[in-house]
Amino acid sequence: MKIIIVGCGKFGTRLANYLNNQNHDVTIIDNREEAFNNLGGNFTGRTVLGMGYDKDVLESAGIKVADALISCSSSDAINAVVSNIAHNIYHVNNVIARMYDKSKARIFRSMGIHTISITDLGVERILDYFDSNRLQVVKKIGEDSEIKIIKIKASLSLIGKTVDEISLHGEFEVVAIERHDITMMPLKDTKIKDNDTIYFSVLEESLLKFKEILY
Length: 215
Fold this sequence. Notes:
elongated; 215 residues; potassium ion transmembrane transporter activity; NAD; RCK_C_sf; Alpha-Beta Plaits; 6-stranded parallel β-sheet; Rossmann fold
């Protein structure tokens, strides 16, 4: 994935190195040139000097072809502006804003922007979120596609949970699991395992809620 990170502080540095080591195409933006020194000699991505909310800076970083943008500066206000630009002007598919004020999270989710707090578990959770966004619709049911059958690989947030824990009756439910080349209809207490492929039936109107459960 082509990923832009705004903010080369402690979290941004750790995130950039982690994603770089996972072979993603990483570009990190900061307005302090000395901040890039923290990346170390093994970082093979790009650095762009400037303000993350400057469109020229974002375009220099490749936002027009980016798969994801993560704004993790020390300012909620800057993260909000950058994420809004990425989502609404450049239509980046995956946008994440780091928020110190958790009360703002619901507002941003309603705008299609995911948020993480300073107490979240770490950079692995961001990759987990990207995984949950890779939804493959394999069948649509109804004249207006009211119900979708969605196929997804088990992510870190799902492994170990039961089918009942990741279903919401009347909105989305697990209908099948592929495991070791065998397809089965699971029971409510069936636990999700690593490398499982899970099939959900999901109401169109519940897609956003479904994504939140996956994360």
